[in-house]
């Protein structure tokens, strides 16, 4: 037993969203990602099971130069991994742990993100999130761009661990 | 292109990856409440990693971490904690355990602890991001800790509660990179 590759993607053409379907059967997920933008300044959102209800909450810690800021959002329709402004850039990298070890347990996410800040220096972000769904197993992981598209060469790998 | 485009139509095929560098050493999945979780027999691994989803029982308390059951004042830690708009850095020294996470009653916490140590002459270093709900809303923290034992290799790792129990459905997975 070890982490298993579930799926990986390298976009060959632009796409507004990337969905990994049929990811069920694991208790922990690890996502490694490099998102390339099409030039539009926008956010990256995480959505689970295509649930667009107000079921997401997350806490962010963000560091840019000598400034550290925090913020919490609740009742959201997705977990916003990177803000659209002022940090929406042309490329971002991230690693995520997603845990949902039981259908009746809410999912939790840990995201560690490097955000390219167009025309300026990079931004570091740590996020913890929750998907308040205690009725369904995790079956799909989606990344959505709030406007525009992910560009070609966006690359994402999803692994899973089941006990 | 519309949202929700089918991924497989766009992606290039790639060879399956295999994280074979990490062995799963042990898995604990609680079928009933337990005050602590101990992983033993950890010698022979150069790096260790614990991925966990712990669920607290009806008593809020701290999740604590100890190595080799050492209850001496041998743990130092640096924390970065985000709670809404508040982001606080803090340090503790000479602790008898590591404060892994604050757990409110009946709430989960997810973490990944990476541990390096397995040679004499240096202290162990631990690093962990955590998401939890200590005040009812989601919060996150990052911590680094040092176990000031430069003599012993790590033989056991224990997750324990300040009070009360981990509830059933708690899952923790221990992995290690074997010595070459």
Describe the protein in words:
The complex is a heterodimer of chains A (163) and B (180). Chain A is mainly β. Chain A has strands spanning 4-10, 17-21, 28-36, 44-48, 56-64, 67-76, 79-82, 91-99, 107-115, 123-131, 140-145, 155-161. In chain A, the strands form two sheets. In chain A, strands 1-12-3-8-9-10-5-6 form an eight-stranded antiparallel sheet, with no helix packed on it. A four-stranded antiparallel sheet of chain A has the order 2-11-4-7, with no helix packed on it. Chain A is globular, with a radius of gyration of 15 Å. Chain B contains no helices and twelve strands. Chain B has strands spanning 23-29, 36-40, 45-55, 61-67, 75-83, 86-95, 98-103, 108-116, 124-132, 139-147, 156-161, 171-178. In chain B, 37% of the residues are buried.
What is the residue-averaged pLDDT of chain B?
88
How many helical stretches of chain A? 0
In angstroms, what separates the terminal alpha carbons of chain B? 49 Å
For the report, how would you describe the main beta sheet of chain A? 8 strands, antiparallel
Strand/helix succession of chain B: EEEEEEEEEEEE
Estimated helix fraction of chain A = under 10%
- Termini separation of chain A comes to 8 Å
Oligomer: heterodimer
Q: Would you tell me the overall average pLDDT of chain A?
A: 92
> What form of chain A results from the Cα inertia axes?
globular
Strand count, sense and barrel status of the largest sheet of chain B are: 8 strands, antiparallel
Largest interface: chains, residues each: A-B, 57 and 52 residues
By DSSP, the count of extended strands of chain A is: 12
Question: What's the alpha carbon Rg of chain A, rounded to whole Å?
Answer: 15 Å
Helix coverage percent of chain B:
under 10%
Strand order of the largest sheet of chain B: 1-12-3-8-9-10-5-6
């Amino acid at each position: 037993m070890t982490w298993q590759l579930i799926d990986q993607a390298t976009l060959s053409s632009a796409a507004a969203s990337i969905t990994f379907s049929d990811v069920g059967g694991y208790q922990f997920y690890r996502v490694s990602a490099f998102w390339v933008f099409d030039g539009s300044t926008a956010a990256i959102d995480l959505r689970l099971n295509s649930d667009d209800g107000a079921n997401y909450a997350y806490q962010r810690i963000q560091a840019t130069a000598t400034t550290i800021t925090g913020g919490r959002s609740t009742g959201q329709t997705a977990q916003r991994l990177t803000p659209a402004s002022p940090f929406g850039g042309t490329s971002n990298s991230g690693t995520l742990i997603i845990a949902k070890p039981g259908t009746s347990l809410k999912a939790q996410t840990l995201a560690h993100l490097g955000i390219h800040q167009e025309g300026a220096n990079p931004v570091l972000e740590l996020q913890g999130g929750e998907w308040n769904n205690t009725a369904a197993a995790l079956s799909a992981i989606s990344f959505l761009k709030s406007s525009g598209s992910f560009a070609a060469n966006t690359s994402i790998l999803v692994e899973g661990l089941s006990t | 292109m519309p949202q929700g485009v089918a991924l497989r139509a766009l992606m290039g095929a790639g060879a399956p990856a295999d994280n074979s560098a990490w062995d799963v050493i042990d898995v604990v999945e609680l079928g009933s409440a337990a005050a602590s979780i101990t992983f033993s027999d950890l010698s022979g691994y150069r790096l260790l990693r614990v991925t966990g989803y712990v669920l607290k029982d009806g008593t809020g308390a701290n999740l604590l971490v100890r190595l080799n059951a050492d209850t001496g004042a041998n743990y130092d830690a640096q924390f970065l904690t985000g709670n809404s708009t508040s982001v606080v850095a803090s340090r503790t020294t000479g602790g008898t355990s590591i404060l892994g996470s604050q757990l409110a009653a009946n709430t989960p916490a997810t973490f990944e602890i990476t541990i390096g140590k397995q040679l004499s002459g240096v202290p162990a270093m631990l690093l962990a991001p955590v998401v939890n709900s200590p005040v009812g809303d989601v919060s996150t923290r990052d911590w680094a800790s040092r176990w000031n034992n430069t003599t012993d290799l790590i033989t056991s790792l224990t997750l324990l509660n300040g009070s009360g129990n981990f509830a059933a459905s708690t899952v923790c997975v221990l992995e290690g990179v074997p010595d070459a």
